[in-house]
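New to this. Help decode both lines:
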Amino acid sequence: MRIINKNFSLFSRNYILITLAVLVTCYGLFLASTFYLQVYSIGILVLLIPCLEIRNHQVVMQLFFIFFICMMISSISVFDRLPYKLLLVSQPFWIALKYGIALALGLCSLAYFLFYKNTNLIKLCCIQFPIMIITCTWYIRMILILNNCQYIPNAKSVHIPAVVIQKCPVCCDIHELWFSFHLEGKDHHVSMDVNPRLHERSKEGDTLILQVHPGTYGWPWYHKDIKRRYK
């Protein structure tokens, strides 16, 4: 009888957490009054994941998949409403990974002492910890991008000489050019939806000066309405 009660308790905890995840996602999508409340709601989803009961690999992956869907829906909603875009998207990854590992370790350790003292520690390290590293890295990277892409009063714009390496055909009112530029000792490539007149008269090999914002952490960024510029 005790085993049945215990299993029912574990079953109930997982489904209570799933219900909370769906409710938090709906709040972030439809009820959050400010942009930052949407971001915090995603953070709550991250904090709930270590509380899931780990009974076997298959179950925890199914439960994590539900959380992952909730987080993706919320993050897509957040990023689609952002008026800016990071110029070098890959830069925050290694910094986010470093802090993500530390945060994942802290959350998993806390969850272990609260819920999993009788659970095999190797199972937690093989299942829960890798999942939390991925989740925390993804969330911290998003926070870094959001904090970096803030308008800094009186900051000097970054002027980057860029060469047009490819002129993409017009599709669905998207006038895209691929640029190549040199920054911080490395060559980079980026695509931009530019002004139709600029797209029409540009050809491969032309040089343009990209005027972008410096970024709080030094990662250049630009507004998505950049197509109204560089006429």
About this structure: The beta strands are 84-86, 158-167, 176-183, 186-193, 207-212, 221-223. Confidence is low (pLDDT under 50) at residues 1-6. The first helix runs from residue 2 to 31.
